[in-house]
User: Fold these one by one.
Assistant:
Number 1:
Amino acid sequence: MKSTKLCLIFILLLNVAFAEKLEFISSDGLEYNREFVPELLVTEYLKEQGKYIQKGEVTKRWASYGKCQEVWKTDKFTIVCGTFGVWKYDNENTRTIYFEPKKRPLEIHSCQPLDDGGMLIGVNKVLLELNPKGKIRRMIKIPFLKYENRLQMKTVRKLKDGGYIISACGQNKVYILNKQGMLTRTIKLNKLDLPAKVNRIHGVELLDNGNVLVGTGYGASLIEIDKNDKVVWSLQSIDLPVLGLKYVGGFVIRDNGNIVVSAYNSTFPMFEVSRDKKLVWKLRRNKDTGIDLPTNVSLVASK
């Protein structure tokens, strides 16, 4: 807790002091116009921070309660999901605790704000749906997840049909549940014919076409899997060697179909790529005041 308080003080000082311009590089090696970079919320897991990118600059930073897992923004709040709890920051940057597990060592792995003001939370072997006041209104047990604490899962999302999708990190499996919370599909990535080995999968999204897009963690790739468990699209390190991919974590899909990826300890920590594997921009690492080791990303607004 002491380290979290020190981190919070440091972040407040940074926010007051300046916005940090980031260096975005286009595919031709020239400077990319920062005006075309979407507004992004970036997760720095190890630094226990969430960061707000506006017009290519880090304009705000927020401390997390424990290691930072995800950051979201609504009209009224910035939601920062840490391993020990979820904090909400209002527009004046006043922080309140929204949710904190009562039992230890429960660890929060992922969160997603819901349309009604509630939230989906993934904790050890359990999905929780919370009401707008942070009270549990639904609990779904997930006994098939291995008890690996931080490697249990990395991403949980509620689907349009009311079901859920989970990336089981250590098991390298994707689980899909129906709206009753019953398991309907398991994708065992280690059993599939993949272009590259997966290792500690991270981001996952159910696409509108019914396929599943997965960030394969230390497998350093994105793969799209159809309903028959066939890989129909992938992005690997050999496709864009200039990125020096070592990890593919959370990602977000823009309205134009491009994918913004958090690449953690890769040579370039973030990048945007089109579906035909053309690089739009890559971000140069700034360990001190910019983006260093991002594990997740979300969109604030599409452009």
Number 2:
Amino acid sequence: MASHDRIELAGRLLRIVPKQSPRMLTRITLYLVGLALSIAQFVMIRDFVSILYGEEIVIVLVTASFFVGLSAGYLLSLRLSDQVFRALLVISVFLHLSFPFSYRYLASWFAAIEVSGYLYLWLLFIYALLFNAAFATFLPRLVSDAAGASAAGGVTEEQRLKVFYGLELAGFMSGFLIVAASWSRPLVDLMTAYWVAIGVIVWLTLRRWSVTAVYIVAAAVVVYWFPTLDYHSTALLYEKKHGLGEAEVLFSVNSPYQRVEVIETPDGDRRLYLDGLLNLNSSDLSSLNFYIAEVPARLMNPERTLIIGNGTLSSVPKVHQYTRELTSVELDGGVLKAGQQFYTTAEDLKGIENWSLHTDDGKHFLLTSKEQFDLVVVDVPSPLTIQEAYLHSKEFYGLVARRLGPNGVVAVQLSGPLQRNDRTPARVTKALRAAFPEVMAIYSERADRGFAYASKSLPFSVADVQGIAKGYEKGGDFEVVGPETIDSYLDETVALSVNSMDLVLRRGWERFTERYFR
């Protein structure tokens, strides 16, 4: 939808709404407040999780701040005079027109001057108040204002509260549908709907055309410049906070699951970020694909291969030649879209006839598929959130084991080298060991990562892996821990499992405090 079409739609709404009865106008106001709250929740949580980097502890912190903002609004709602409420509402709605640019620019500035981490927390909670407090005041105030009329009409305040809250909740659900429609689309579409709803709320609350007209003009200007401001503020954030130099934003969308961004650095490296966390970069993607997919495929020549994750699809051209049938399963359409635009193009996949792609959850696919595979490659992010950690758990590896043939192999990424401690590589390896009798772990200096292969009976040896890696490493450090010694590395750890996800919060907290409070 073009900018002038969005502005015309807003004008039509403002012409229609005032024709309704006062009772209906109150109901429309509450419905729109709920709608705005729903969109505000999505935008604020997604943006601040990305700004602060999306570990589980950050998701918890940002979500908590959102509800603190709501609580502050409820607390202040009946303590504000009508005049103060109206003044704060006007200030708040015009500040909303600066979202999401203003807090990105502030976070970039904080990073440039190297401020204390506490200022980032202040930024988070101040914007939580700006996002939510004004909207949260409406329900208590409208219930209170209607108390006299309710008593006269035989309607109790409790009954009116139920009706009003139901309207706000209906608006919230409608806002969620608008958010869902915006997934993997430009953010301007969602923000336009948000600002239109706020514009109607302003008119219904203040009944002042002068303020509403100024708001409409300001909103139209922001909508027009939105794509430029959106990409510039995002690029500046990566330049200052991630230290990437003159970064260029090639791709940025909100998928149903995360913020997906592709950033190009001055040296041409294309980096894929998920919720502000670096997932991979084009410069070492080849090494990742080599060890997690190509090595086991070359050693096995599997009949059927399954790749879970690898949304860039970059393993497909590497593996298809070694297997008769290749299946990819990736949940996030946003990652797939980024991958096909910037990592593995249609030309790269052209002519690969033994490959099929399923957009599905890996767990769901394993539970519903009746096929048996000889090689399963699990190429998913490190366990920094609960959802990601499940894909590294012994329960998930148990599902994989049920889909593998007698000599089938699962290949996974360990992030770092396997050591005798309680860190991520050891926890993931222990989870593999709980599901498979034989596990082999490797570490590649060139890939700067650790990997593991597991099976009921591994069809290749340590010497086989060393032989195929020797020519690739070109003198770099390469370590292998074979099945016969793997258990000696796992004495000090417990398997990552559904009932033992402490690693997610512990590792997230360590990274968060080191980043902001070191």
Number 3:
Amino acid sequence: MGQRVFGLADWHRDGTLAEHVAMEARNLAPLPGDVDFTVGASLPISGLTAWQGLFQHGRLQAGQSVLAHGAAGAVGSMVTQLAREAGAYVIGTGRAADRQKTLDFGANEFVDLGSDPLEDIGAVDLVFDVIGGDIQKRSAALIRAGGTMVTVVGPVKARPAEGLAVDFVVESDRAQLSEIVQRVRDGRLRANIGKVSTLDDAVATFNATGRRAGKTVIRVLP
């Protein structure tokens, strides 16, 4: 009782936007006292998505190259940081306004999808897709033989000619959560928090049509 925890509920549940929530203990990990709850709340979906996409499904190895779409976003910034720590060369994409933020999170290069020819980056080992559509199709053509595309936007519409394509849904994993939060404590990983709202404003926050600059966090208690 009273232990600080963070985690990700099973997808068949109704979510965690409430003052009291029952969750399976296997989906939770201890939240160290030097990591505040706002940071802790921002980590599970974005951190686990990046971790599982890169290492479980993408089989990333040191020295490989990663094309990280949406690199200034909540998931993309985690992909960038974890891939760089693993020894990969990261090319981040986004809009022109995302350039500096993407580079600040550690990307080696930035591609403005609004003006830079994506094909000019050459072949890559892994594409982390959070966009789908035409960008996914163009990205698949860049994957070198034996490479992988991982996507979180549903069934893959475009597959690399000589590589793998994997679509996945993130799952909670206590060991991975512990690895992620330890990197935050060590300063190796930075949370990317956008808007922080109250429970009363939650519906309006999630229904907002504006582009989110990071992970949205709802504070249930003051």
Number 4:
Amino acid sequence: NSTALTTKQARKPYSLSASLYHIIIMARYYSIPSNLTTIKFCLLFPLLVGMVSAQLSSDFYATSCPNALSTIKSAVESAVSSEARMGASLLRLHFHDCFGCDASVLLDDTTTGQGEKNATPNASLRGFEVIDTIKSKLENLCPGVVSCADILAVVARDSLSAPIWSWPVDLGRRDSITASSAAVNSNIPSPTLDLSGLINAFSYKGFTAKEMVALSGSHTIGQATCGNFRTRIYNETNIDSSYATSLKSNCPSTGGDSNLAPLDVTSPTSFDTAYYTNLINKKGLLHSDQQLFSGGSTDSIVTNYSNNVGALITDFANAMVKMGRLSPLTGTSGQIRKNCRKAN
């Protein structure tokens, strides 16, 4: 029933993620026992992802809208040139849309329900106007062809201006018709999670701990609000004391919740390995950042990425491709929105 799969909310009953829901449905179809173990689940996941990705292709718009990708790239370059911070904001939009990759994060609230934009994990998202501009250009170029979900996926890649940070983007996603704030609250990892919580959150989406650490490298650009790191700088001990002191001047113990600090204090506008070096030096801004280097199983991964930019480039790109394949709507499911902020 494709109708049942047209909304992120419908695809996540009982707070299950879209990925889990599809896997459970497939498991039932193939008569896999209901007491499927975690190991069997992890073995099944790559097969199902492969089945989904087979419906996507990097040249999806080669005939229907051949100038789509160049139009997106030009608009992104213009936006980032006007405001360096916008690159991180656009990358983050894709992260928060996936896990689900259906552009539900772009939908405005309606009279019948709250969308995802105002859910707590998404409250600081920005860059929606850039997406609006791109969508308008594409609608003038190829009406009703390029989905908002695909725009987000391509924008995430193009937001990193350095050509070494690139990956092939599979295309052919369609857009959901509604959004679910409850789904966001249950699916976006919290910045307060400890290492085991982070590993579990990403594992449920089919990611390994190594892939989780690689994706966390996106924090080498962008900023976070004081409200998300206040507890860390005032109450935690695994933080460089001078670093904590420098942050307190703009993040008082009370008030100033929306004040900003760079996630990467060393090179805040460059996508590089400094984020990982900062973790080794106890200069992770968020609690969840520092957990990646806290005496646990991911310490060696952080150390490797700190010293080996080539490994990070490869692993980050592969993880981004994998993330872009998480439960997209394809075929006749969903729709191609004319306006990314509302269903047709």
